[in-house]
Amino acid sequence: MTSPTRPTPDRPQSAIRRIIAPLASLKLTVLLIALSIILVFTGTLAQRHQGIWDVLHTYFRAPIVFIPLDIFLSERSERSFAVPFPGGYTIGLLMLLNLIAAHALRFRVKARGRRLLTGATLVAVGVLSIFWFHSGPLPARILSDAGGYAGVLPLMLVGALFYAPLVAGCALTFARRAGIVLIHASLMLLLAGEGVTAATALETQMPIYVGATSNWSQDIREVELVLIDPSSPESDLTIAISQSALQRAASSGELIANPAMPVAILVDRYFPNSDIRPLSPGEQPSATAGFGVNVAAVGLPRVTGVDRNRSINVPAAIVTLLREGLPIGTYLVSPHLQLASFIPAEQEVRIADRPYRLAMRFRRFHKPYSMRLDAFHHDLYPATNIPKNFSSDIHISDPARSIDHEVKIKMNNPLRFEGETFFQSGYIPANHPGEPDLGTVLSVVKNPGWTIPYIACAAGLIGLVYQFGASLIRFLRRSTP
Amino acid sequence: MNDRLRKLALPIIAALLATAYFITPIVARPNTGPDTDAFGELPASHAGRYLPLDSIARTALLSISGRQTVRSGGDRLDATTWFLELIARPDAASELEIFRVDHPELRATLALSNDSQRRFSFSQVMQGREELQRQVQLTQMVPSEDRSLFQRRVMQLSDQVTLYQTLGSMLDVHPIPSAQPGQEWMTLSMRQSSAPNAAQKAIAAGYAAAFEAYQSHDIRGFNRVVADLRAAVAAESPPIARRAADEARFNRANVFQRSIVLYLTVSLMLAVSWLRWRPPLMSAATAILLVVWTAHTIGIIARIYLSGRPPVTNLYSSALFIGWGMALLGLGVEYFYRSGSGLFVGAVSGFLTLMVARGLSSSGDTMAVLQAVLDTNFWLATHVIVITLGYAATYLAGLLGALFIIRGTATKSLSPQESKRLAQMIYGIVCFATLFSFVGTILGGIWADQSWGRFWGWDPKENGALIIVLWNALILHARWGGMARARGIAVLAVAGNIITSWSWFGVNMLGRGLHSYGFIDSAAFWLIVFVATQLALIALGSWPLRLWRSGPAPHDLTDNSRKVPQRPLRAATRNGIVSPLSSDSSISSLHSARYVSVTQSEPGS
Fold first, then answer.
1. Are B543 and B562 members of one domain?
2. Which residues does chain B have within 8 Å of residue A112's beta carbon, measured at their own beta carbons?
3. Is some CB atom of chain A closer than 8 A to the CB atom of B338?
4. B416 and B542, same structural domain?
5. pLDDT tens, A51-90?
6. What Å distances lie between residue B76 and B68, B79, B96, B359, CA to CA?
7. Total structural domains in chain B?
């Protein structure tokens, strides 16, 4: 970008400058914004054919994406060309580089001497105070003391105190450019925050029946095959085989074996999404024992992101258990097989004359604490079936940490506990209309980076108001005679 | 003094006329015939909220016929009168032509084929009842997302027939107040209660008497019974009765329908003003626009009071609010630039968005109760308002861009100064749009984090909002980098219209995300038409400047950067970069290359 005819001042970094100048150019910024618009647009269209989780990993959390052109058609086509395109990681990284290069090159520090020192100190103090504020208990306490949303305004006022040093420092250091610097800093934080979320966040669901206690949550995007040894009176021993191990074994035909397992497992078939139907007359069952002798599994296409009923993939598998090379039996397993919603049906298996239980269920995460559902409320608008609110009365107990108390989780009013957040996401309906609901479904989210967008939001808002506010004031001064 | 008065007379008269136009339907009352207005103000509980019978009747009639009135011979029946006819004189009502059947195949299938006719009576539709039932059964075997237009129309007609029959028997209308506050209201049959109290029995009897009096054309008897009924219901639950009566009055005032007419009038006056009689037309148009915008504001405030909700809760109310915000921004632009352009885009946008709202109003009760996850006034009042203002600002910039292109290509009125000023207006509005859409999108992320535990889910509606932010950022950076000048900004802003429409309507048509709150078949058609017009404008705007009737503006010539005067250049150096909202667009037309080299040579004092 730098004009070659113009003699550049003799500075030691001028060679580096010449290299990073193109990286800092506004043309690159515009190009990257345009590319990101195309990526977001195609990533939205693709959700008609692909699940949102799938799209997330092929478009936004990927270095490169092959965009099939059939996303622009109403029907999914079998033979469709795919165009390679930079994925979310590539564009995000280039945007970060572009921002950093632009700031290194164009956004010169305006202050000198003591002013610069004061400014830089204030920026450092500001960054520390913001992180101290957000990692501490203060925001949560202000919100809970004021009772939810009423606390947002006090929170903003208190928060402004903690952001003030940063804003003052930026204003001293960058003068009129302080607003832009803050906006760009917030964008970098947002990009980084999305990266942290991609790397660390985990979303699971916790169904609890009324009166029951639960100490696990499950990830409904993934299944596991479990073999449970109930012989010990204190606790069951569970051997779990992951979905990826099942899929690998199904495609390679290899046995799944482990010294800890009493049997080896052969995965005869694996269906990524399936349905279970009764056997047709005369049809041979693929299973030799268990539930599978009466039903058959059929494969279904994977669900898409904009499915009207928001359904999920429910896999199924046909597995043969072998002990010392001899088959014990072939079983059909699937989360479809259940005693009731969220209660997987386990099949009795006798191995070396000892009873075991076999099931395919959604992947479980066990917790150090347990939650009991005392009551579930499903409020309706008068004289209709339109839900107005859902809420769960939960009793949490964690003997190791001396926690034993009640909480209420409502829509738009989650519980934050032990680094996880519990949201009211659904309920277990009754078997017959008119009866009360059977239980609650909480969504359990663990996202260590959850505060980053809040900080980015605050910094970006301050920056935008600073930038456009200052411009507006200048404009008004000029236009009033 | 006299001269000043004469100048003021025209706008004052225009404003008074416009005000009178809004007030007439509220004060004018027919003094002969049954007082159906009073009947329509009676409250009932229906579909989860308390509302006047007039609202129930209007919503049903709009869903069935697409209109708020019924033609009967030479007369026009309003919705409440139609409702009374339906209950008290069902045989006469079944001859009123209200069922709108647009699809020619469906008309043929039901033997309704009459070339010019679009609306049919209940008895006409019922003659094809068996065929309709058969078609419904066939359609029900097809999953709802795979149905053809014909099949969707079959289901729609079947729903309308059901709605007609349910309303005619008042099965889901609960007009009898509960004995205790907090209990559910009852239907006229009072099946919900084993032992209704005396007041409840009296109200049920009052309704029966009112229907009987109406049936036997006993006008005085009807008016007396209705007056007694109102007093009896009001005694049971005064606040609900008062609010229902207010809502019925609001319905009758028809503020938004009347605003459409006046916004259109103002647009036409301003269009003419560019050809002739400029000063008087401008002043009168300004006065009328201020009145109609005030009425628009009052209408939105009335809806806030009636629904107890922030202004935007569904697609319909978002259209009202976007129009309001655009008209406000247009007035703001006019305040600073006084060229008529702000007024014109304000009026045109008010007209267009209220037309969109009108189209959306036939899909059901516009103040219907909200899904549980949306039931939070805090987020509706923050995220939704801010993001909707972001839509409004982006659209207004696009409309100014369209004005720029049309005036530049089709007229000679786009002088270099005018081109510069319009580009500045667009730029300023894009700054607003960036602020609102950025903050609104992030607030949405925080809501999502609060409700679902994820700040960003790449859900279609979220992505739509993100694209608006990105597009506005692109316009700003393209300008700062000298890649887009006056004409470029105008063309990019017009493309912003397509992007905003995608986010507002397009994503709802993709299927159903957590966010998508409404879908209407015909909206897809109008969206395509709109996008096509915008693409045509972009193509027009991209024509070589020498083909423009207004000719190229001097500062749009490519060699312009050489003409940059020294002083602003130094100013740019001192300030680091060109300031946004800068009135001197020659500064912003610097190339970034030049800019970089300039900063490099700055002495490190």
1. no
2. 605
3. no
4. yes
5. 777 888 889 888 999 888 877 776 666 666 788 999 999 9
6. 10, 10, 11, 21
7. 3
